[in-house]
Structure formats: C-alpha cells, structure tokens
Amino acid sequence: MSLEVISKIRSHGGTQGVYKHASSATGTDMEFSVFVPDHAAGATLPVVIYLSGLTCSQANVTEKGEYRAACAALGLIFVAPDTSPRGADVPDDAEGAYDFGLGAGFYVNATEAPFGQHYNMRDYIERELHALIGADFPADISRVAIMGHSMGGHGALTIALRNRDQYKSVSAFAPIVSPLNCPWGEKALSGYLGADRAAWRTYDACALIEDGARVADILVDQGTGDNFLETQLKPDLLAAACAAADQPVTLRMQEGYDHSYYFISTFMAEHLEWHAARLRV
Ligand SMILES: N[C@@H](CCC(=O)N[C@@H](CSC=O)C(=O)NCC(=O)O)C(=O)O
C-alpha cells in the first residue's frame, strides 16, 4: 500500500509524521499521524492507537495531546487516525451539525443509504489501519493498545471488546459509554444503522458487556466539570454494566476537569504508562 508523506518532524527524540493513503475501507483518501520514537535498527515497538472525538481530525491530538515525551520514554508508537471519511462525494449531516457525518463517523460500518458507501470506520480501524501500521512502520503488531476520547472513547471500548485478541489493553477519556442511551449515540446509530436498535448493540460498550464481551481490564478517566457528563457520557452506566458482569474497570472521576484537551493532556502520560505495562507482557 502506498503512503504519501504529508510531513515529518523531529520531536521528543522521535519522528512525528502525518501520512495520507487511499483507503479501501472508506473508498476515500484518509490521513493519520504516527509518532515513532528513536529505536535500534531492526527493532519493532508496541503501538497505541488513539481514536479522537466529534469534530476532530488526526490533528487535534497530534497538536494538543502531549503524548510524545511519554511515548519516547516508554518506547511506544502512537497512531492517530481521522474520525470519518472526507471528500467532495462523502455525505454529511443534512444540517451540517457537528455530531453526525464529517468528523463524526462513530467507528461503525454504516448500513443506511447514503452513508454505507464511505462510512466504514469500523473496518478502517480494525482491519485496514492495523495492517498498514504493521506493514509500513517499525511496529510489533502483536502488541497493540487502543484508547480514545468521547466518541473515540466509545470507539476504543467497542473495538477492544469485539477484538480481545487484537488489542492487549484499552483506556478512554470521557467516553460515550452507551450510544443506545444518549442523544449523540441515538442520532448517529439511527442515521448510520437504521431504526433497529438490536443492530446497535455491537456498537455500545455497555450492551457488548451485557451480551458477554470481555477485556482484561478497562481504564477510564472522566472530569467532573465536563459539560457532557450527565447528558451524553454517563460513566455510571459503564460502572453498572461492568459490576454486573464482573468486568474489571478502573473509573477515575477527576475533580474539576472538563471535556477538553487540557483534561486529556493532563492524564495522557498515566494512560500511556498503563498501556505500556500491559504491552510489555
Ligand atoms: N463543537 C461542539 C463540541 C465538540 C467537542 O467538544 N468535541 C470534542 C469531542 S466531543 C465527543 O466526541 C473534541 O475533542 N473537540 C476538539 C478539540 O480540539 O477540543 C460544541 O461546541 O459544543
């Protein structure tokens, strides 16, 4: 697969790159960023995939996530994909709203017209990006972690729960834990998947756990000053689903933190250390 290099910059004892490729999953060009710490010739490094939230491209976490020092110290490759397909023929929200369509792919394979043709972010992350990172970067693809923020936290949790063998660890910042039970999720899943709520369950972390999916453990940080806490995020639903299913989870309520990258960057190094400990075994 041919990768176009958009940029490559030295930072924190490593190389921060931005790349573009023609995606077979989405039928569009896709951009992603990769930070590779310096490493011995021929060595391969474990990988952390970071899934971003509504309105984001790869650039938000790349510019504001403050992950490079920790990744360089821990020897982790950090990969940040886009949140949706993009391009002139990619359909968007009918009213141009930020919570559906462009920048809001919700990490699903859409089945509803006109979204099914391009909105295949599940396949893109789980299959295409995974293979591409293994083929084009010094990555140990048997040691991959996944994390994300908000819509990306939903993506990380659901992708890890559906693919326990592919991801050694999972964590999230302020995730949407149950799209079945919040306005962002109901809008997105009805638009991408149609009205049958049974079909949504494979894209809902709480429902997946209720239905028997498991991971080794889960780390979630959630700010108590987050505007979306009560209406959209509802971490108590995840705590309840995990308790009922004996699914280990560490849910840390962080006093006064909001939904922004000021919050994410504060706890980013702790999440990377948590993943590094699990990727070393
Ligand atoms: N624009 C909206 C809110 C959009 C927003 O807060 N996006 C978050 C993710 S929300 C869940 O997925 C985000 O990461 N934004 C990008 C950033 O750089 O902060 C509004 O204004 O209400």
Automatic annotation (TrEMBL):
Pfam families: Esterase. Gene3D superfamilies: alpha/beta hydrolase (3.40.50.1820). GO terms for biological process: formaldehyde catabolic process. It is an enzyme of class 3 (hydrolase). InterPro entries: AB_hydrolase_fold, Esterase-like, S-formylglutathione_hydrol. It comes from the Bacteria. The keyword Transcription regulation does not apply. One of its GO terms (molecular function) is S-formylglutathione hydrolase activity. One of its GO terms (cellular component) is cytosol. It catalyses: S-formylglutathione + H2O = formate + glutathione + H(+). The keyword DNA damage does not apply. Its EC number is 3.1.2.12. Keywords: Hydrolase, Serine esterase. Serine hydrolase involved in the detoxification of formaldehyde. Belongs to the esterase D family. This is S-formylglutathione hydrolase. It comes from Celeribacter marinus.
